[in-house]
Amino acid sequence: MRFRAKIADIGCLNHFTRMINTIAKLTKTCTLRLTVDKLYFILSDKVANGGVGMWCELSQGNFFDEFQMEGVAAEHNEIYLELTPENLSRALKTAQNAKAVKIKLTNKNCPCLTVAVELPSLSSSSRVVTHDIPVGVIPRKLWKDFREPAVPDFDVSIYLPVLKTMKNIVERMKNLSDSIVMEANLNGDMNLKIETELVSVTTHFKELGNPPWVSENGSQGSTQERDPESMVEARIDIKKLLQLLAGQQVNPTKALCNIVSKRIVHFILLHDDVSLQYFIPALA
User: Fold this and answer.
1) CA pair distance 252, 76, nearest whole angstrom
2) How far is residue 203 from each of residues 113, 115, 186, 224, 251, measured CA to CA in Å?
3) pTM for the structure as a whole
4) Which of 39, 62, 190, 250 has the most CB atoms at less than 10 Å from its CB?
C-alpha cells in the first residue's frame, strides 16, 4: 500500500488548501478515500441518529502534478484513512509561498501522511518543512460503511441564494433560537424561519429557481404532482447550518438543497472540480 503526490502549481495549492480548510470547519475527523482518479473526504455519521453526513469529491488531476498510489490489492486499488482534517489544514498553512508540496503515506511508529513543504530560500538549496500527520488505516472489511450516499427521495429541490447573504441572516437568527425552519416550494421560493414563544422571524427569498432533476422515466418523481405554491419544510439545528455556511472558503458555482419533509435537508455545493454534499437531519 503506497501513496505519494505532489502539487507544484501555486493556484492549485491555494485551491486545495481552501478545500481542506472548509472540510476542517465541518468535521473534527473524517475518512479520506484515495483512488487512482479521485480523493474523497467522507463523514458517515448516522444521519438517522441526529448526526450530519458529508461527501466531498475532488478530481486529483485538477490539483496534483504527480499522483501515484497502490491500494491493498490490484483488484481493490483504493486506500481508506481516518484523518483529522485540522492537522492537514495546519500543515498546509506553512505552504502559502511554497515552491512545491509533497504528500506521502509513511510509517513512523504509526501510519502518517507526511507533508513536505519546499520553501524558497536565498541560498541555492531549498528549505523543507515536514509535517507528520497520524492517520488510521481502515481495513477493507469496513469499506462498505463509506459508500456514496444516495440522493434522498426529496419533496422539493431549490437553488440557494448567495451563501454569504444566507450566512449573515442565519448568524443573526442564531441569537434567537437553537433551530431554524427551512421551507421551499416548486415556484423557486424559500423561507428561513425562527419561531419561539417570544418571537417569530421569517426571511423570504423569491425566484431562486428549481433544479431540473429528471429521473430515468423523464419525470421529477414525487415533486411532479405537488402544488407549486405548497411549501415543504424541515426544522434543523441552526448551528449545523451555520457551520456549513461559515466554513465555505470556496465560492461554489452552484449551490442547491433538497428537502425531505420533516426528515432531512441535503445540500449540494459544486465548484468546477469539487463537489460537496452535506446532510442535516430534521429535528423531532
Assistant:
1) 32
2) 45, 45, 18, 26, 22
3) 0.89
4) 190
78, 67 contact by CB (below 8 A): no
Q: What is the C-alpha to C-alpha distance for residues 94 and 92, in angstroms, rounded to an integer? A: 5
8 A C-beta contact, residue 232 and residue 259: yes
**β-bridge mates for residue 66, sequence order:** 6
For range 209-213, the mean pLDDT:
88
- In the three-class reduction of DSSP (H, G, I as helix; E, B as strand; rest coil), residue 177 is classed as coil
Flag whether pLDDT at 163 surpasses 70.
yes
List domains and CATH numbers for the chain. 2-146 (3.70.10.10), 156-281 (3.70.10.10)
CA R_g for the chain: 21
Q: By the 8 A CB rule, do 154 and 266 touch?
A: yes
Closest CA to 34 of 58, 63, 7: 58
Cell of 92: 498546509
How many Cα atoms sit within 13 Å of 37 on the Cβ side?
3
Given a cut of 80, whether residue 225 has pLDDT beyond it is no
User: Across the strands, what pairs with 127?
Assistant: 119
The grid coordinates of residue 107 equal 510509517
Cβ atoms of 135 and 83 within 8 Å: the answer is yes
User: Average pLDDT, stretch 12-21?
Assistant: 92
Q: In what order do the strands lie in the sheet with 200-205?
A: 200-205, 190-195, 179-184, 232-237
Query: To the nearest 5 percent, what fractions of the chain are helix, strand and coil?
Result: 20, 40, 40
Provide the 8-state DSSP code for 187: T
**How many alpha carbons lie under 13 Å from residue 97 in its C-beta half-sphere?**
5
Alpha helices in 114-255 (DSSP H): 163-173, 238-246
